[in-house]
């Protein structure tokens, strides 16, 4: 999947600085980001690392100025990063049903328990 920075900014309700047509193919930690990936930088330490990284774009807090890469400025950078992460790496489907070792696996006992207690409830 590939999204433009403009599309991601719409998703997270952010403001783009620099080129909004940059294509993003994934999400990565600032230390591991490569071309085509977006990363998160909140503190001065990580803003410095993001400037030196190979990331194509960075999610930053509002007010970050003069950044060398295209950025999405948002009120809540962690939330925005989570939204983008979910877009590129959705949660795997959870299996339905009851696990074989669950204490509730034998739900067929429930009607028998009801039969036993219902006559005494009135």
Structural class: alpha/beta
Taking pLDDT < 50 over at least 5 consecutive residues as the criterion, the unreliable ranges are none
- Overall shape: it is elongated
CATH third-level topology: Udp-n-acetylmuramoylalanyl-d-glutamate--2,6- Diaminopimelate Ligase, Chain: A, domain 1
- Give the CATH superfamily: MurE/MurF, N-terminal domain
Based on the coordinates given, report the CATH architecture: 3-Layer(aba) Sandwich
Find the count of extended strands (DSSP E, 2+ residues): 7
Residue share in β-strands: 15-25%
Number of domains as seen in the coordinates: 1
Radius of gyration: 24 Å
Could you describe the largest sheet, including whether it forms a barrel? Answer: 5 strands, mixed
Q: Strand order, main sheet: write it out.
A: 2-7-6-5-4
- Helix fraction bin: 25-40%
Order of helices and strands: EHEEEEHEEHH
Termini separation: 61 Å
Provide mean pLDDT, rounded: 85
- For the record, what CATH class applies? Alpha Beta
Helix count from the secondary structure assignment: 4
């Amino acid at each position: 999947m590939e999204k433009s920075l403009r599309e991601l900014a719409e998703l997270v309700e952010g403001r783009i600085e620099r080129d909004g047509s940059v294509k993003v193919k994934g999400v990565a930690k600032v230390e591991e980001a490569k071309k085509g990936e977006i990363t998160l930088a909140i503190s001065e330490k990580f803003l410095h690392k993001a400037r030196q990284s190979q990331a194509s774009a960075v999610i930053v807090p509002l007010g970050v100025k003069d950044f060398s890469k295209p950025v999405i400025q948002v009120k809540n950078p962690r939330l925005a990063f989570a939204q983008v992460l979910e877009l590129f790496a959705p949660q795997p489907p959870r299996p339905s049903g009851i696990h074989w070792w669950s204490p509730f696996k034998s739900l067929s006992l429930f009607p028998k328990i009801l039969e036993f207690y219902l006559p005494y409830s009135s």
